[in-house]
């Protein structure tokens, strides 16, 4: 995929999150939004991994830890969902770490406890995004 394609994919994911949010509103459990967003993404033909295990490898040690990404879309965009009053720096760090461990170029932190998904979402890119071809 190119940088433009990954950026477009992220834009479309946010659009579907907005659709889910408009339908359901704020105040539900994160898992409800996760299932509904996954449903919308699959309806649009995207490949979606839900609650995918994140491997942690340090040196030669592969650890059995229970880290899970909420959604991974088309093997490129990590989507971390929240339904909380305030996004904290630890939530951003969590997403950035998942992106690094999975070697994925883009991540979206989407909080459904808001009146406006567009203003509250946080997109992230890393060194893997820089390695994608332009276009």
Walk me through the structure.
This is GxxExxY protein. InterPro entries: GxxExxY (IPR026350), PDDEXK-like_dom_sf (IPR011604). With 135 residues, the chain is of the alpha+beta class. The chain has one domain: Trna Endonuclease, Chain: A, domain 1 (3-Layer(aba) Sandwich). The protein contains 5 helices and 7 strands; from the N terminus they run H-H-E-E-E-E-E-H-E-H-E-H. The protein has helices spanning 3-24, 30-43, 89-102, 117-120, 127-130; strands spanning 48-53, 56-58, 61-63, 68-73, 77-82, 106-111, 122-125. It has a 5-stranded mixed sheet with strand order 1-4-5-6-7, with helices on both faces. A two-stranded antiparallel sheet has the order 2-3. A hairpin with a 3-residue loop joins strand 4 (68-73) and strand 5 (77-82). Helix 1 packs across helix 2. The model has no long low-confidence stretch (mean pLDDT 95).
What structural keywords apply?
alpha+beta; 135 residues; five-stranded mixed sheet
Q: If helices are DSSP runs of H or I spanning 4 or more residues, what is the number of helices? A: 5
Structural class: alpha+beta
What is the residue-mean pLDDT, rounded to a whole number?
A: 95
Largest sheet: 5 strands, mixed
Shape descriptor: globular
Question: Summed up, what is this model?
Answer:
With 135 residues, the chain is of the alpha+beta class. It has helices at residues 3-24, 30-43, 89-102, 117-120, 127-130, and strands spanning 48-53, 56-58, 61-63, 68-73, 77-82, 106-111, 122-125. Helices cover 43% and strands 25% of the residues.
Task: Please specify the SSE layout and strand pairing.
Layout: H1 3-24, H2 30-43, E1 48-53, E2 56-58, E3 61-63, E4 68-73, E5 77-82, H3 89-102, E6 106-111, H4 117-120, E7 122-125, H5 127-130
Parallel strand pairs: 5-6
Antiparallel strand pairs: 1-4, 2-3, 4-5, 6-7
Helix pairs in contact: 1-2
């Amino acid at each position: 995929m190119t940088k433009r394609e990954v950026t477009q994919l992220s834009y479309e994911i946010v659009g579907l999150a907005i659709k889910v949010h408009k339908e359901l509103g704020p105040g539900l459990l994160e898992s409800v939004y996760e299932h509904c967003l996954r449903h919308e993404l699959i309806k649009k033909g995207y490949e979606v991994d839900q609650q995918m295990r994140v491997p942690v490898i340090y040196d030669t040690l592969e650890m059995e830890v229970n880290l899970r990404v909420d959604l991974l879309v088309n093997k490129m965009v990590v989507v971390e969902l929240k339904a909380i009053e305030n996004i904290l720096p630890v939530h951003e760090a969590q997403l950035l770490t998942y992106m690094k461990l999975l070697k994925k170029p883009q991540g979206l932190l989407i909080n459904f406890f808001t009146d406006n998904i567009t203003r509250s979402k946080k997109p992230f890119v890393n060194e893997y995004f820089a390695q994608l071809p332009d276009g």
